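Attaching the record inline, Q. Sequence:
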Amino acid sequence: MKEFIKNYSLNEIESLFASIGEKSYRAKQLFNWLYERNVDNFFEMTNFSKELRYYLDEHYEISPLKLVDRKKSTIDGTEKFLFKTFDGHFIESVFIRNDGTNEGRLTICVSSQAGCPMGCAFCETARIGFKRNLQTAEILDQINQVRRLTGLKNNNVVFMGMGEPFLNYDNVLKAADIMNYTFGFHISVRKITISTCGMYNGIERFIDEKRPYNLAISLNDTDMAKRAKHMPVEKKYPMQTIIRLLENKFPASRNRVTIEYIMRKDNISEDDAQRLKTMFRYNRIKLNLIPLNKGKHNLEIPTQEEINKFIKRLEIMNIPISIRKSAGSDIDGACGQLSGKYYSTNSK
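Structure, as predicted:
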């Protein structure tokens, strides 16, 4: 089986080309073809010699993913893409038009794993179970494919798709670096967000390595007994230890940490609001409030009136609060919904 060329960093490509007698500047040319021009065939790389194009085609593959399904919301223009990996797994990517048009912020939500081992009660991907980590090439190719299929260039990336990014730390961060390269996708570090359910070791490593990307942490409960029930990661890495880590290590000069909070009927009480105010009183954070999606989770979805009351109670926190609207609600927009259907169909 051929290797996937998108698994290589710029330095690795330079070393590869040096080993076959090519000049190092060819590496930047290759990256330009792969990420800026977004070609899917080595023979389109017209500033390479015929010999080099044949060599690359003989030893490497460009695209590790195949499109299986595509859905577009008639409500907000959100598009969902289902891809099949080379070994038969399904992963999802979502293209979000943040204001419903092709202008402004265009976000691609990428997956980092096929399935997920974390077992969060509200997550559809958890029902699939864990299959494997995605290679760097499979993460990057989601952006290539979505850009090619939509004809649009995103300017924002969130690692909030299927999987726990910090359980695939090396491949995820390598992909983020290539997204940021001038000769890669050239996306600003401020426009790349990596979200974790609370993997202490990954968060600490991310901080210690001085990674420049935005960090988001899923909280989803202020009552830690409830959190342990809905998010098993709480039992291994209690949120209080992560809060202390942020207090001691997260630099004040960095962007605020985003705290993600999925709003259920049973976690938006007055007591929840009060606990949320005190939990992060020494941290520079911003709150991202997320209405619970419909699914097979048997959790109650709050009314808009209940959500509004909760938000009003939080407003006195004097920190940035954003409310994430549910994108693609008419097309199985939540991560894992579409893949779950295909896994179920194929297992019958």
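The mean pLDDT is 92. The chain has two domains: 3-61, 66-347.

More tomorrow.
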